[in-house]
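G., before I forget:
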Amino acid sequence: MATKKRILVLGGGFGGVYAARELERILRPSEASISLINQENYWVYQPLLPEVISGLIGLTDVVSPIRQLCPRTELVMREVEKINLEQKFVTVSPGFRARQLEIPFDYLVIALGSISNFCGTPGMVEHVRSFRTVADAISLRNHLIHVLEEAEIEPDRDQRRKLLTFVVAGGGFSGVEVVAELSDFINKAKGNFPRLRAEEARFVLVHAGDRILPEMSEKIALFAQKLLAKRGIEIRLKDRLVGATSEKAQFKSGIEVPSKTIVSSVPSSIPPALHVLPCAKENSRLKVNANLELAGYEGVVWALGDCASIKTLSGKPTPPTAQHATREATTVARNIAAAIRNQPASPFTFEGLGKLGSLGHYSAVAEILGVRISGFPAWLLWRAIYLVKVPSLRQRARIALDWFFVLLFPPDFVQMRLIKERGIARQHFEPGEVVFLQGDLGDNVYVIESGECDVLRDADGKQTHIATLGPGDFFGEMALINDVSRNATIRARTTMNVLLVSKSDFDTLKCCVPAFGDAFRKLAKDRSEANQKAGNTAAAN
Amino acid sequence: MATKKRILVLGGGFGGVYAARELERILRPSEASISLINQENYWVYQPLLPEVISGLIGLTDVVSPIRQLCPRTELVMREVEKINLEQKFVTVSPGFRARQLEIPFDYLVIALGSISNFCGTPGMVEHVRSFRTVADAISLRNHLIHVLEEAEIEPDRDQRRKLLTFVVAGGGFSGVEVVAELSDFINKAKGNFPRLRAEEARFVLVHAGDRILPEMSEKIALFAQKLLAKRGIEIRLKDRLVGATSEKAQFKSGIEVPSKTIVSSVPSSIPPALHVLPCAKENSRLKVNANLELAGYEGVVWALGDCASIKTLSGKPTPPTAQHATREATTVARNIAAAIRNQPASPFTFEGLGKLGSLGHYSAVAEILGVRISGFPAWLLWRAIYLVKVPSLRQRARIALDWFFVLLFPPDFVQMRLIKERGIARQHFEPGEVVFLQGDLGDNVYVIESGECDVLRDADGKQTHIATLGPGDFFGEMALINDVSRNATIRARTTMNVLLVSKSDFDTLKCCVPAFGDAFRKLAKDRSEANQKAGNTAAAN
């Protein structure tokens, strides 16, 4: 027998973790070492992630430590930066010390999934939330609570209405589950806010197709549509989200929905490290053969899950579900074992057992082995199947306890804001939108990346146009430097993208980077003089 | 009867929440409205916070929504920015829109607690963690897991030892509970890391006094000391933490402990909004009379909890514990009711029932009504008392379930990294410490705030001194601009403070702030030329 082979698995989702588990099962420790690279040290039970929004499942109960799921696999908790297929090594991101780490392999499994990609759509990166990771789920939950807390103390009716409007883009499984959980949570939590009890919350689900749940049969999809509509969820078909600002969602049909909460389950692409791989792609995914070997690297590299373009025996593309990823993982693990043992490879032959989707509120839809079920029986089935499928006993017990617990006590609405948002953020504005009003508190400096805005001053009941600012210009620094409220209103003149620098970061930069501080101080002086002049002119009028 | 009075409570800890609850109980809705300002929408059950480190208690089970604890109180989820005692209003931080919010009051309750204050000690702000909030606890837990994951893949023995060394400063209740939970967690979680099983972790507790637990009698304290020492925790008495870098803790005795994890439970001061109040202070806290009225504002403003200097009947200062804060809250609420009803006020007379401290691992120490207990009986008593004292039934049930659950399954060690750390951070270096090594991956740009460093280049087995950099100088930008690894080693020449700008923020600033980008580009060009010259010289030697 040859020397011990090194198997490297990239990604800790269903594909990666189940491949490592199957490899541990069928290979002797003397045959191969197994390593797995993942950014987190946990694996996420993705199908139950929407339940984290409403707190049906405890924050940590939806995840399991990878080290416990794959005890014989070496876990490297870093990010994959570069894959060198020719020289057979993978470069990972730095840890505490910025030391470069290169991990060699004999056999490679690529299971890096897909990422949200909002590129090219105005305002999407800044103002639309994706829903893929535990961090996304917790961040959405915290945002929903923030929105409720703000709505409770907001005196303006339109602002309150905007705060209580929620837009979800994409009517597939994921989008439907998110809008269902979201509306359940908001409607329940609202009861704790005395002023909001009588207010109606608005939920909008926008979908490009002519019915939701394209994964299911039409009959089932229509049932789901009716049920969601009955709960007050507006479904907008044959339309899609094409833009967003911090104040509204813009649809293709021209409709604009004022909202502070826009979630998208739609666009996805493979991660950047896979984009640059010198191998064949198919439908923007990695091209593999029937044995799931990467085209051009047969016998050395396998790809599976959402990052690979895989077909079932009948020639249909496999959907991005857990049941397919786990079966692909088994095929990949067996073929690697076959390669090590010089045995023939076998193709992926799974056709899918059925489809299940939760609609929240004790309801679900299912199509299993040709049988359609909906409503409460489907919901029970959905819970039972997903509970049985949890790989760790500990996690299964915790989830069962969580589900039992909410029968006794309603889910709470504690916000888990862990870190103050800081650093440099971006915002997108449409023409006519107000960035801030004269008299507002100053907590950010804005730098214009593209577009223009008007600076307006209110005095003696009259509004004066003071200046128009363009790319590279700053505004908002006066309030920070002099610690007073905003002395003018800023309104976007064109579509405008701005950079936000927080007060604390601004202060730090101003003190420590002389060039930065000087630029701001000069600007503040010029502005101050210009303002004085404008003030005098206004007074003269 | 007069018009309805407005009572405003600042702070949502034990003092604030229990005052609001008592006010709700004794005042009729027609007598007064009650508002409470707190940054978070939840109240933290502080005594159990250390258990979050090891996952004994679920992350969200240590908190309760304030709205459910005080249903009749209006909660304003903002930060207190300014208190105007003369004109009787409080200004709060901005929400979604930067609108200024001023909240008027007739009666004010100040219960803002204390904050960690590391000012004046070199490196403390940057490298020492405080342990006060839920965010601190979760952040510490995540850091511990990160340290274990890094130690597992670290080939260097000294680095690994440093990663597995943990320093806790302050041997009062809080410090002792933190070091106990921390060592429990590390020793248990280590078992999941194949390479760490045989490694010894090191725990150091440093305390200024001549014995730990100054709150307890000597006999009990010595018992606790012996117990912790038996578990392998080093206790350094009559010493204290005087400095820190990212690589080590520095003690007053001159001893230096290489470590990546330094937690302090020691220094505290009142929040900035209270610092600037024009009222009498005592021991750097707000001065109040026996009725807990703020000196100079009797009948209008009350202060309690950790931000007030309060004495028991026997003249001893009250310790910062939950049992005292809740009793002070009752006194304050009754005195406000008395003020509204024109009745006489009554003084604070509570002396304390006893003292309880957990030592982790089924052990605790207690002194109750003069009786001393330690070990397992004290631990049972500790759990029972704290469980009974949880104000919400839901939370009590969850905590009991959590405690029951860990008897069946060991706590997990899932890391909950929610947001990538970004923005501008600071680091502190002592002379001789290396900032980065030639060949490291570049992921930050450094700006020197104070101090100097040497730039060293290794070539052909020889190290050449290229330059000395001082305040205002940058380094590390070459690797980012050209996307290569570091081309030199940077070593601190003196005590040095630097500013870190992350790669992503650096790129953003470079593109969008012309002055910033220009400064860097010029610098990079100069450096590049200088390097070439130095390289030529080195080659010529």
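Chain A has three domains: 5-39+78-114+269-352, 124-265+382-408, 424-540. Residues 535-541 of chain A have pLDDT under 50 and may be disordered.

More on Monday.
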